[in-house]
């Protein structure tokens, strides 16, 4: 980063120097051109005044003078009558020269071009004399390229000094700029007093730190809960088995104890299976192979699987709606709907009712599960999707819940971009909606 900043600063200075060189060359050229025009015009007017007063003989009298300005007299037909540089008889006709034509028509004219006679770029200024002839004064000038070349050594020297100075200044400035970054306290990002531009980055880092801390705390809590949940059925199984081993059970009570061991073992297996499902969803190691799933048919299969469990409490279950095809992960969709429907049976009253509706809405496919069970108090509704959280803790064991079913529903919804909402009140039952996003074509 430091090297990039240094290179950028030196590059900016180099470009600035180059632009300054070009601009300075143009300014010098323009200034020289302006001064040259003014000088040639002034000199031409002096000579014009002298000729108008003394006649053409003035040029012959001044023939021996070392002219710095080339002076030419041209008649109306373009013939050269006098020239300070060459014999006028050897010069070609000047009637086609721009400055001459303008002088004959307007009284004065000017032009800048390369001279065939002198071989240099010249500035020409022509003015009409009283006798009808044209007096032309011209002077060689440095072209733009020549001006640039002449200023190049000076600019190169200045550029070399400036670049060396800029290099050391860039190093010093870079160290000063990056020092606050090196001194950042990443454990507490918002406590840093640094550049305002880094504020979004530090806020994002602070959020990430808090999320990591929350995940860490959640894992610790999860581990503690898992240990407790696993220990409970294992302790029961161990206790019942020990009683049977020590012969403290009457033969007629052995089936009762065996059934209790079986139930606790089944509860333990269910708990382990749910933990494995959640771990896979957390690690995103679940097979993400999506397919078209008919949610209506899938729900009917789930209700059929839950029928024996519902019949034990004489709960009536029914499915209504219409066939809905959704592109998702069948296994996860099955577990989501199954867990919601299973909870509707577990926490329902004797002779209760579970109604499931599956269909399409304007927002997308929706599955609604309504029961006539014990209901959920308002203060608990936001937490029922947490792991191992149970509203009815006193009866959780006898109802057979692991506290992970709705947590699996939550993870499955996140995986499919779905939304889960709960509407419930104690004694009036519960309504859970799973709204899936509309498929994009």
Jot down its keywords.
single chain; 441 residues; alpha+beta; 5-stranded antiparallel beta sheet; 5-stranded mixed beta sheet; 10 helices
Describe this structure in words.
This protein has helices at 2-54, 57-61, 98-106, 144-182, 199-245, 254-283, 295-312, 330-346, 396-399, 405-416; strands spanning 70-74, 80-83, 108-114, 121-128, 134-140, 291-294, 316-321, 325-328, 353-360, 365-371, 419-424, 430-435. It has 441 residues and is of the alpha+beta class. The protein has a 5-stranded antiparallel beta sheet with strand order 2-1-5-4-3, sandwiched between helices. Strand 4 (121-128) and strand 5 (134-140) form a beta hairpin. The model is unreliable at 393-400 (pLDDT under 50).
Order of helices and strands: HHEEHEEEHHHEHEEHEEHHEE
Q: What's the main sheet like? A: 5 strands, antiparallel
Low-pLDDT regions: 393-400
**Kindly state the mean pLDDT as a whole number?**
76
Task: Name the helicity range.
Answer: 40-55%
The percent range for strand residues is 15-25%
Give the helix/strand class. Answer: alpha+beta
Shape field: rod-shaped
Gap between N and C termini? 44 Å
In total, the number of strands is 12
- Tally of contiguous helical segments: 10
Q: Gyration radius, to the nearest Å? A: 50 Å
Oligomeric category: single chain
Strand arrangement, largest sheet?
2-1-5-4-3
Write the layout of secondary structure elements.
Blueprint: H1 2-54, H2 57-61, E1 70-74, E2 80-83, H3 98-106, E3 108-114, E4 121-128, E5 134-140, H4 144-182, H5 199-245, H6 254-283, E6 291-294, H7 295-312, E7 316-321, E8 325-328, H8 330-346, E9 353-360, E10 365-371, H9 396-399, H10 405-416, E11 419-424, E12 430-435
Parallel strand pairs: 7-9
Antiparallel strand pairs: 1-2, 1-5, 3-4, 4-5, 6-8, 9-10, 10-12, 11-12
Helix pairs in contact: 1-4, 5-6, 6-10, 7-8, 8-10
């Amino acid at each position: 980063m430091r090297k990039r900043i240094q290179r950028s600063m030196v590059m900016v200075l180099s470009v600035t120097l180059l632009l300054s060189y070009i601009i300075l060359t143009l300014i010098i050229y323009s200034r020289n051109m302006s001064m040259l025009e003014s000088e040639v015009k002034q000199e031409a007017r002096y000579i014009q005044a002298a000729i108008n007063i003394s006649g053409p003989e003035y040029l012959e009298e001044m023939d021996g003078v070392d002219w710095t300005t080339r002076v030419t007299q041209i008649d109306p037909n373009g013939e050269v009558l006098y020239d300070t540089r060459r014999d006028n008889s050897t010069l070609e006709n000047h009637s086609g020269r721009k400055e001459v034509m303008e002088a004959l028509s307007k009284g004065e004219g000017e032009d800048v071009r390369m001279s065939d006679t002198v071989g240099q770029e010249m500035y020409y200024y022509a003015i009409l004399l009283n006798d009808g002839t044209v007096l032309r004064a011209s002077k060689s000038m440095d072209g733009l390229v020549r001006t640039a070349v002449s200023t190049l050594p000076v600019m190169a020297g200045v550029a070399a000094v400036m670049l060396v100075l800029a290099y050391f200044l860039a190093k010093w400035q870079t160290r000063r700029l990056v020092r606050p970054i090196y001194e950042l306290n990443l454990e507490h990002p918002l406590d840093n007093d640094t550049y305002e531009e880094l504020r979004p980055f530090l806020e994002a880092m602070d959020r990430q730190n808090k999320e990591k801390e929350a995940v860490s705390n959640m894992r610790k809590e999860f581990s503690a809960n898992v240990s407790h949940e696993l220990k409970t059925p294992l302790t029961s199984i161990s206790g019942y088995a020990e009683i049977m081993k020590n012969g403290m059970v009457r033969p007629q009570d052995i089936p009762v104890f065996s059934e209790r061991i079986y139930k606790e073992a089944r509860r333990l297996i269910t708990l382990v299976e749910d933990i494995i499902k959640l771990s896979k969803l957390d690690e995103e190691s679940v097979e993400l192979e999506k397919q078209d799933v008919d949610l209506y048919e899938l729900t009917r299969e789930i209700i059929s699987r839950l029928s024996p469990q519902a019949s034990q409490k004489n709960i009536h279950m029914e499915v209504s709606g219409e066939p809905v095809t959704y592109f998702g992960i069948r296994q996860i969709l099955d577990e989501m709907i199954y867990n919601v429907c299973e909870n509707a049976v577990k926490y329902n009253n004797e002779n209760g009712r579970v109604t499931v509706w599956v269909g399409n809405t304007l927002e997308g496919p929706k599955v609604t599960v309504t029961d006539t069970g014990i209901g959920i108090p308002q203060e608990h509704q936001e937490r029922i999707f947490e792991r191992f959280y149970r509203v009815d803790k006193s009866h959780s064991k006898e109802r057979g819940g692991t506290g992970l079913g709705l947590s699996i529903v939550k993870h499955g919804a996140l995986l499919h971009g779905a939304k889960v909402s709960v509407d419930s009140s104690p004694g009036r039952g519960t309504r859970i909606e799973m709204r899936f996003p509309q498929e994009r074509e």
